[in-house]
UniProtKB/TrEMBL annotation, chain A:
Residues 512-696 form the Mic1 domain. InterPro entries: RMC1 (IPR040371), RMC1_C (IPR009755), RMC1_N (IPR049040). Residues 429-438 have a biased composition (Low complexity). It comes from the Eukaryota. This is Mic1 domain-containing protein. Residues 41-157 form the Regulator of MON1-CCZ1 complex N-terminal domain. It comes from Hibiscus sabdariffa (roselle). Residues 477-488 have a biased composition (Polar residues). Residues 316-337, 426-497 are annotated as: Disordered.
TrEMBL record, chain B:
Belongs to the CCZ1 family. It comes from Hibiscus sabdariffa. Residues 56-165 form the CCZ1/INTU/HSP4 first Longin domain. It comes from the Eukaryota. This is CCZ1/INTU/HSP4 first Longin domain-containing protein.
Amino acid sequence: MAGKASSSQTSVGGLGSGAVSHVFIHYPPLRCNIPGSRGFYYDDGNKLLISPTSDQVFSWKTVPFSPNAAPNIDSITEGPICSIRFSLDEKLIAVQRSNTSIDFLHRETGEVFTHRCKSESESILGFFWTDCPSCDIVVVKISGLDLFAYDHASKSLALVETKKMNVSWYVYTHESRLVLLASGMQCKSFHGFQLSSAGIIRLPKFEMVMAKPEANSKPVLASEDVYIVTVYGRIYCLQVDRVAMVLHSYRFYRDAIIQQGSLPIYSSKVAVSVVDNVLLVHQVDAKVVILYDIFSDSRAPISAPLPVLLRGFSRSDSFTSRPSTKESESLQASDSNDNESIVYGDGWTFLAISASSSEIPSVLEFLQRRKLEANKAKQLCLAIMQTMILECRPITMVAKAMDVLVTSYAHSLKTGTYFKGIKTERTPSSVSNVSGSGQVIDVNTGRTDGLGKSLQRESAPRVNSVSASDTEDSSSLEPSKISSNDTQFDGGKVDIGAESCTTGNPLNASVSDQQESQLTSPAISPDEMYKFVFAPIEEEMIGEPSYLVAIILELFRSANLEKVKVHPNLFVLTIQLLARSEQYAELGLFVINKIIEPSKEVALQLLESGRQNFQIRKLGSDMMRQLSLHQDYVLLLVQDGYYLEALRYARKHKVTTIRPSLFLEAAFTSNDSQHLAAVLRFFSDFIPGFRSTSDFFTYYHILNEMNSSSVVA
Amino acid sequence: MLEYSFSKPNSSRSPSLVTEDLRSFISKIYTVYSTNSASFMGLSSIGTASDGMQLCIFDLRRGQHEGQELDKILYFFPADLPFSTQLSVIGLSEGLITFTRIFSPEAACEVIEAERHSHVFYEAEPDIWMVMIVEKSKDSEAIWRIDALREVLKEIHSLFVMFHGSIRALLEREPGGGLTRAHLYPFIMDYLRDFLVGKKLQLPSFRDCLMERRSVQMLTVGREAAIEVQTLVRILESSAGNLPCFSLILFQDLLVSTTLSPEDTINLYKYAVLRLTPLALSSGAKSWSYLRKGNSSSHVSIGSTLLSTGSVSEQFYGSHDASPAGDNRYHVTRPLQHDKWFKGKDGFLITDIWGGDIGSLNVTTPTVWLHQTEERMYLCAYQYKSLTIILLIPLSSILNGDQGVSILKQQLLENASLKILKVEEKLSKGWGGENAYHVSGYRYLLVDGNRDISRASPPTKVTTLSKESLLALNRLREEVDAEKSRAKWDNPGREKDLEVCIRAKNNAWAVARITGGKELYMVLEKANETLLYASDAVEKFSNRYCSGTFSLD
């Protein structure tokens, strides 16, 4: 089997950086041979791949994914298995045996206890573990939710709370911590709860939209048609409307559910997944994947549809038969033989796709939102920027692009992701759970705030039950007051999650990638902007100095808006460019209005460039003085022959480091005996012992000669 | 009797030594050149007819033969003076120039101070001289600074060159001189009308000692606004495609940005302030409806008693300002004509000065001649609220003339209008109003000679000063002018630092500090008695508003 299967080669039109296929499958795949396997389950709470046999449970960690990893094996009692999930601390294994009972196995002691429904009429639809402070496990029944706390001492479940309602079926993802309960004739009425570490939020009841095929028929919504997805920390629900052939999207807020519009579908079978905050709609019949970036307002796909290529599988149902745990990762698990299973981790790379798009600023925006392969995204952004400038694209476009990058950097500074990427793995993973204590779920507070809270929470006993490995993004529900087009999403929280697991994708973390994946943000600092964009093209752009100045100016503008400092060399470069094209009037304005910020380097460059223009040199020496670079200023005065002014200045600002001979020499070359006498007198008066130095004697002698010769003449 | 003073014939010689010889020498020259028997002593009576001011331009290379003397006169104000009188004035000037060149070939006569007149000389172009004669009347207001008057001459000439090219070039184009006279006459008349107060010409006097004519006043902007302005400049220039072009941006009457050389900036800035800025336009707006009625002749005749030409010289000067559209021998544009610029619907400023019909909006685009590139440029002015933008595009780079210009204007609007809006808003927000640069307790003038920029107390504040203070400062400035020109000769290329503090009769301090090419003049009226106090006040001002430039010790 080929290691890298490119489904399509998207060419990167003139934008540098070799083309990358949009998807490739990690090789080698995970192979396992488990006799008597009863299929595969994916536990999204712990990111485990589980394969039970009649008396054993094999589990593989999928983060990091390693094809050679040996599975963990736990023994369980024999019996039917409806579903299986590990507790979040991975100490317990819960196995649903029937619609009335769940077995709990303590992995260390092997103890087993069974939880049963109180009445026969109650049927268990499923269950999941939660990091909610008040309970550990939630059991979904047709009559509602039962919230239990696990009592370590008595090794039993204690009922904490019951939420009564009719439930036809439910969907839950651990990533969103959201459970949606369907009810009604058409199963289109929904109750929702978010059970996160910040507490339980009950969402208002809402209805999903379904088109009617005919007057009297009423289609029933199936659980397969509803997906909970988390994009940029926001929670959405996507619902397939098979009649209208559209995919409706809803966004969840704390107090409202707001429909966000619909995407067309081209296949009766549709699967939805999210990779790196990009929504992938798999049109199974049409054998294509269409990619959307929900963040941007546009409902247009971010690229042309990409073909789905299923390789080596006799059965093509890997998309449609979703594992019962409703995982939303793009994981393909299929048993090809009786017992042998091959699991591929596939990594989606959107960089090439985006590079082929024509709207460059929006491409950069898209790239800047990438969390996976942040380093590649960053490299590509730099390359795009550089190419734009080299190709002399319209200034307004480059300005927009610049805005995108600078804004993104400023944002990453605020949320702290930029430095996080630089200092690797600073915080231990246990701090990952930062969801605000008691506040609302929206933990959009500052970074330091978040850390402070997390430390507090660490001391609370509840935290210990939170599994250290549970580090994925926890999603949040914002109050709907913040309208959906509000661009500030819950970055802080998402990023902190990302910190300890390095990448969000469970199946992507191959070892070689890990090093560069340390970068959690593709944000580009002004220093990098200078080093990797401007410095390399400086030579090539010599022919277009005014264009380059315009671009630099745009960078200054964006940076100034975001209160970001730019690299000081850019100021020097600007001076060089303006001086080279003899735009002295502009250069003067740049300096006077402090567009070029004063610094010693800048002052020196002004002096250098001022060799051709007296005014510019003047600006340089004025800057020296204003920066209180006294010694340099005095030297400059002496060099220019203003030695008397230099002396006065030196006296005022107590510059004592310059040798008297410099002044004396300057006075001597000006051939003015009065001045020379004045300078001699100055040093005699102010430097103790000067009269006995050789300088004194030399110039005293010279002075006498000058005087006598002038008398003779 | 006459007294002569030569600013710098030769530094070591005292002018008084040559006075006697000079007088006889001049009278000899005078009789040679004069066609008229007017006596040497008659000179002092010339001014009576013209409110105390005469202005002439003549070419030393012309009219060197007897009977051709009139040839040398290129311009004379007032024009209704008999030629004999005109020639006697010019003859004296010519004689002095010739004489003083013996001692100082590089820089001849700069000024003659006579008992009742001052003669201010300016050699505008090689051998083309401008002379202004002002009368020292009993009127106590008639006290001026010679350099300020010379600045007027410089300004007339440089503005003229900007629109019509050099005088020498015009003379070469038409050696008869008619073309030159036809251009000079209306131009200077239009220019002088700006000095009319009532029916009197009011030339710069001691009351204007806190301003510097040939300099640019700039708006102080913050970094953010400055960046916005500069990005606008880039957009403006890029909308002209790859053509090399220049721009000038003003806010109110203050310069915000320029890409021109200092010399061209001063000229265009001056023209903008005179005719293009919102303030200049609004002062003309009143007569707009008046003009539309077709009553143009009466509109031009404002102050006609003073500025109209007499019948004698009408033919000589070729063009008559009362008939701009008349059938002259020469087609002469009058860029300084009043009330001729209007703001079009698209925001561009239009005028029919260069031809065309303002009613049909089909006008010829104005052109100016740039000193820096020595090239003729189209001038496009755009105005949005307080913002005036001037764009200059080389004539040679636009092939299909006015049509090409209008396409360019269209592009400009498309590319830059949003940015212009933004910049105007930013600048308006930061604008401190008319008195933004007033510093209470101080009346000052700051001149940056390196960059030809000046800033001064607002005129309304300067008027609060007493006459004594202003006279004292005027006197001080004259001293400084003399000192500066002496230093320029003694030690060319070197800047001299200078500090003078004088106490006026009314106990005000007049202070001048010059350092590194920058000049600060100041009047402190309510100041303490001690010199230390005055010095401290200057120090404070320097540190606060001039980033310490004038803090000497």
